[in-house]
Specification:
Blueprint: H1 5-17
């Protein structure tokens, strides 16, 4: 994701909590550089 630091932080915090009744075990965050052409949603267990 990209945006203002506040917006990025808010999105990361929401991902760490997950939707209602979810059990989020891990949320990895790292800096990325370059241009990205697509977004993929990977299958879950």
């Amino acid at each position: 994701i990209c945006g203002t630091p506040e917006a990025v932080h808010a999105m990361i915090e929401r991902a760490r909590r997950g939707p209602p009744h979810a059990m989020v075990e891990e949320c990895r965050v790292s800096d990325a550089h370059g241009e990205f052409a697509r977004f993929e949603t990977l299958p879950t267990a």
